[in-house]
Amino acid sequence: MNKKWYMFFLIVFLVGLSGCSAGNSEEIEKVGLLVPEAVNDGVWGTKGYKGLLKIQSDYHADVFYKEGMKNDTSIKQAVEEFDDKDVTLVFGHGSEYADVFNDLSGEHPDMHFVSFNGHATEKNTTSLQFKGYAMGFFGGMTAAFHSKTKKIGVIAAFEWQPEVQGFIDGAKYQNSETEVNVEYTNHWDDQERALNELDTLLKEGIDVVYPAGDGYNVAVIEKLKEKGLYAIGYVSDQSDLGESTVLTSTVQQADKLYGVVAERFAHDELESGNLEFDFGDGVISMGKFSPLIPKDFQTEIKQHIKDYIDTGKLPNGKESKQ
Q1: According to the lineage, what is the superkingdom (predicted)?
Q2: Residue 191 gets which letter from DSSP?
């Protein structure tokens, strides 16, 4: 055989072998997802669903999901159904699943249970937490930079959210004269209360608001748009709601985090207990900046984020509190 033809066929053969070995060498056969509301809510629930679909695509896994899983009875019933289908990896897309997963873990030793923002105590339970303080810090810097009244606000769901204190500290770092008012809804999805709190903030002359709750942030942003005011988006990149309203967003890429968890699970490396994730893990980022934010400031924020990833320190020289 001609030497050139021999080399050609050899290359084709080796490329073919490479193609056969591409992809995930490990397997995940069946995965279940529980969401408290719906998978098409456009925010938190949708991110969980996209994460599930990513696992389906990456591992050719069979996937199952159930919506409206809010109480222990429905959660237990769903887990029993998943068990009957031989599901081995179960995601509960919220903090409400951590305790019940701990309780159920002993009855389902062949399942690994994954929840968010809770406290996992068993060998086959894991709780995931986004380190929200830093993203709040950079959101607060942006809000304070743009505010003309030097009065900005937060409508948060719960006091424990680290992004709230981060937002306050970031705003004060950017402009020490900035006044930050915080109101709480005590629920992720209480849209009516969030809008009432917004009315309270607006009466105080606030011109930039951080609606830190995934069930009501869209409604708050739409109201701010009507009034010609500004927002920092939450959970998703919400620039599509109006680039002249949404200055930037603090993005938690839950769908990517599902991929991280799945890879660890597939390689038998998924730790039990409580795991934290941040900018350096590639699952938190700042969203698209509004054209209203000067390029120089955008570059400054991006450099601060890079420095934070490299050193663990924020622009004020301190480490993230969470």
Answers
A1: Bacteria
A2: H
- The answer on 260 and 120 residing in a single domain is yes
Residue type, position 57, single letter: S
17 assigned to some structural domain: no
Residue 196's domain is classified under what CATH number?
A: 3.40.50.2300
Flag whether 322 is in a domain.
Answer: no
Q: What residues make up the domain containing 227?
A: 132-252+292-311
Over residues 223-263, the pLDDT tens digits come to: 999 999 999 999 999 999 999 999 999 999 999 999 999 99
Q: Are residues 298 and 152 in the same domain?
A: yes
Indicate whether 189 and 105 sit together in one domain: no
Residue 28: count of CB within 10 angstroms of its CB: 20
Q: CB within 8 A of 230, min separation 6: which ones? A: 143, 146, 147, 207, 208, 209, 224, 245, 246, 247, 292
Percent of the chain at pLDDT > 90 equals 85
Are 220 and 197 contacting, i.e. CB atoms less than 8 angstroms apart?
no
Q: Which residue has the higher pLDDT, 119 or 26?
A: 119
Q: Are 301 and 168 in a shared domain?
A: yes
The residue written with tokens 């279940």 in the block is 32
Contacts of 158 (CB under 8 A, 6+ apart): 184, 186
Q: Which residues pair with 210 in a beta bridge?
A: 154
The total of structural domains in the chain comes to 2
**Are 33 and 64 spatial neighbours (Cβ–Cβ below 8 Å)?**
yes
Measured CA distances, 199 to 12, 96, 192, 205 (Å): 67, 29, 11, 10
| pLDDT above 80 (res 136) | yes
Round to whole Å and give the CA distance between 234 and 254.
13
Residues 232 and 264 in one domain: no
Q: Which pTM does this prediction carry?
A: 0.85
pLDDT more than 70, % of the chain: 92
